[in-house]
Amino acid sequence: MDPKGKVALLTGGARIGLVVADALAARGCDLALIYRTSREAAEASANAAITKGGRAITIRADAMDEDQVAHAVKEAHRALGRIDILLNMASIYVHTPDPNEADWSETIDANARSVFLFSTYVAPIMKQGGDGARIINFADWLPVSGRPRYRGFVPYYASKAAVLALTESLALELAPAVLVNAVAPGPILAPPDLTPEEDAETMNATPLRRWGGAGEIAKTVLFLIDSDFITGECIRVDGGRHLY
Question: What is the overall mean pLDDT for the chain?
């Protein structure tokens, strides 16, 4: 599918989301940017898209609240007339060495329930378009590699494994009208508090010996949008990290 003239709805527009939104706008795609706390990032993406000649709106919504999700999808459809692409990028990454029920519920809701809610409300609109819409979810390289590897991330790991299951099941349910796939990032952007020792450890465990950069995620997203015969798949973008 050529994204030119299409409308993409993005959740989680900070950091990697900024680059993905810019790549879509450069291809002539209009944007509906959903944010909860990252208002400045969403508005920056919208302004950049508008300067490229496209349309872009920002909508504040909590991806864990069904009423707010329903309102955000309705408002995006009303303002831009269609929704062809959904990027479920909203996510939290929290270290929980002794997780309690609140940790479990918040992480599952933020990372998996949000995918279910946005996909459920967007799918009927996509089916009206009739020309092969796209849902692209964001998983993680660890569950797609079938091993947790790091201690203290039980809710997070489970939530991203759920995203994989959602991707496959939604792909089956929504075919042939909607293609559903996922991206599983590995070492893409270095955390701001990373120590030199931690950086060296990451590089030593990554065959390509570098951080990928958000542009690699944008390329993968565009590939999945362009492709017309891939659904139910998850692509690792991890520089070969899973090989160690």
Answer: 95
Annotated active-site residue in 35, 121, 156, 157: 156
What's the CA gap between 174 and 239, in Å, rounded? 31
164, pLDDT greater than 90: yes
* Side chain identity at residue 207, one-letter code: P
* Residue among 49, 173, 18 at smallest CA distance from 10: 18
The C-alpha R_g of the chain, in whole angstroms, comes to 17
What's the token pair of residue 183?
Answer: 């991206």
Q: For the whole model, what pTM was predicted? A: 0.96
Residue that the structure tokens 């303002």 belong to: 79
CA–CA separation, 168 and 211 (whole Å): 28
Kindly indicate whether the domain formed by 7-243 is annotated with CATH number 3.40.50.150: no
Residues 178-203 have a mean pLDDT of 94
DSSP state of 157: H
CA angle 123, 64, 220 (to 5 degrees): 55
The residue ranking higher by pLDDT, 234 or 13, is 234
**N-terminal to C-terminal alpha carbon distance within the chain:** 35
Which residue has 């400045």 as its token pair? 40
* Rounded CA separation 142/24 (Å): 27
Domain boundaries, the chain: 7-243
**121: annotated active-site residue:** no
The C-alpha atoms of residue 100 and residue 12 are separated, in whole angstroms, by: 25
Report the distance separating Cα 132 and Cα 117, nearest Å.
20
Tens of pLDDT along 17-42? 999 999 999 999 999 999 998 889 99
E strand spans, the chain = 7-11, 30-35, 56-60, 85-88, 133-138, 178-185, 234-237
